[in-house]
Amino acid sequence: xxxxxxxxxxxxxxxxxxxxxxxxxxxxxxxxxxxxxxxxxxxxxxxxxxxxxxxxxxxxxxxxxxxxxxxxxxxxxxxxxxxxxxxxxxxxxxxxxxxxxxxxxxxxxxxxxxxxxxxxxxxxxxxxxxxxxxxxxxxxxxxxxxxxxxxxxxxxxxxxxxxxxxxxxxxxxxxxxxxxxxxxxxxxxxxxxxxxxxxxxxxxxxxxxxxxxxxxxxxxxxxxxxxxxxxxxxxxxxxxxxxxxxxxxxxxxxxxxxxxxxxxxxxxxxxxxxxxxxxxxxxxxxxxxxxxxxxxxxxxxxxxxxxxxxxxxxxxxxxxxxxxxxxxxxxxxxxxxxxxxxxxxxxxxxxxxxxxxxxxxxxxxxxxxxxxxxxxxxxxxxxxxxxxxxxxxxxxxxxxxxxxxxxxxxxxxxxxxxxxxxxxxxxxxxxxxxxxxxxxxxxxxxxxxxxxxxxxxxxxxxxxxxxxxxxxxxxxxxxxxxxxxxxxxxxxxxxxxxxxxxxxxxxxx
Length: 509
Known about the structure:
12% strand; 21 helices; Ubiquitin-like (UB roll); globular; alpha+beta; 3 domains; Hypothetical protein af1432; five-stranded mixed β-sheet; Beta Polymerase, domain 2
C-alpha cells in the first residue's frame, strides 16, 4: 500500500517559496485531507493519496500555487460535497474556477456516451479560458491510470482507451513528452494486452544488445567532443516508450531492424551554437543515415519542441539516434507548455526573444485574450492555444456524441504531420491530410479559390497525401470554386465544414 505524499515534499518541489504561496498550498493540503478523510479508493487506500499525488506532480513540473492548490482540491466538490462558496471563500475565485473546470459532471443529466462526451465538452470549454485546467486534468488522469489494476474490469479498458485516444495526444500537443509517455505506457497493457505482451517480448530481446552499443557509443562520443574542445555538455539516454514502439512496429510490419530509435543518446549543451558544433563532431565520428537528419531547432514543431535529431551508423552493424539540444530546450521537451506557465518568466522569455519558436507563448499574455465571462478571473493570464479554442466550440457543428468523439480523434488527437508554407511557417495537420486540408488550415478565402497545389516545388493533385516536412504552395485563381468531390477528399472536419458552407453559398448565388 502506497504512503500518502507528505506536504513537505510538495512544498520542496514548488518553484515559488513565497510565504503566501506556501501558506495557500499548506491550507489546501490540510483542507483536502480533511474533506476526504472518510473516503477510500478502489485499492482500499485512503482517497487523499490521489489529490496529494496530483498536487505533487503539478509542483514538480513548475506550476503556480493556484494550480497546485486546485490540484489538491480538484475532487473536493464532486466527491466530498464541498460547496463552491466554501472553495471561493477559503481559496479565492481563481482556484474555484480551476477546480470547477476539472470537476466532472455534477448532475446526472447524461448517461453513457452522452455523459462522457458532455464531460469532454465542458472540460475543453473551461480549458479554452484557462489552459491550466487541462494540465490539472492530465496530472489527475496520469495518477489514476497508474492505478488501473484496482479499477473494476468493466471500466478498466474504457479508461485505458480514452487515455490513449484523448489524454496522451493532448499531452503530446502540449509538448509534455514525460506525461505523454507515462500516460501511454500505463494505459497500453489494459487497452491492448496481446499487443503489449508481443511488444514487451521483442523489446526484451533487443534491449541488452542495444544498451551495450549505446554505452560504447557514449564513451567514444565523449572522447571525440573533448578532443574537439567541447567540454560543457552532459549526456543521457532515452528509452522509447512501449506504446510508441508498438505504434512504430505496427507501421513497419513488426520488423525491429527498421527501427533505429529504441534507445537514443541525448547531448545537452549550453547554447544553440554548441548544438551545431556537436552535430559536426557527431557526423565526423560516424556516417549519418541518409534522410534521418531533422533540425527541429531551425524548424520547431508546432508544440514548441526543439532539438536536432540525427541517426548514425555506429560501425558495429547498427544505427543509433542522437538528439542534441540546450538545457532550456530539454526542459521544454519534457514539460512543454507547463514550462512557460509561470507568467513573469513567460513574459520575460517572449520580450527577450527575437521572435523564434516561442512566439506562440504570447497568446497567454493578457491583452491578447478574448473577453472572459464575469465568473472567470481576468488575472489568470493563461488563455489556451487556438486548437483548444476550436475544441471548445467543436460541439456546435456536431450533432451526435459518437460523431463528436470521432472528429476529436481525427482532427485533434490523431498522429500528426508538420507541413511548411513557402514562407517556412509550420502547419500542424492529421496523418493522411491533403493539400485541401492544408489550404483550409491557412484560410478559407485562399482555399475557396484554390486551383492547384505544388508540393516540394512540383505540381500535385489535390488528393495527394501530405508527408512530414513537405513544403506546400497553394495556387489560386479568382474563378476557382470548391467542388462536391473536395468533401470526399478532405480529412479534417474544418475543411469539410468550410466546403459545405462554400457549396451552399454557391447554390444560393
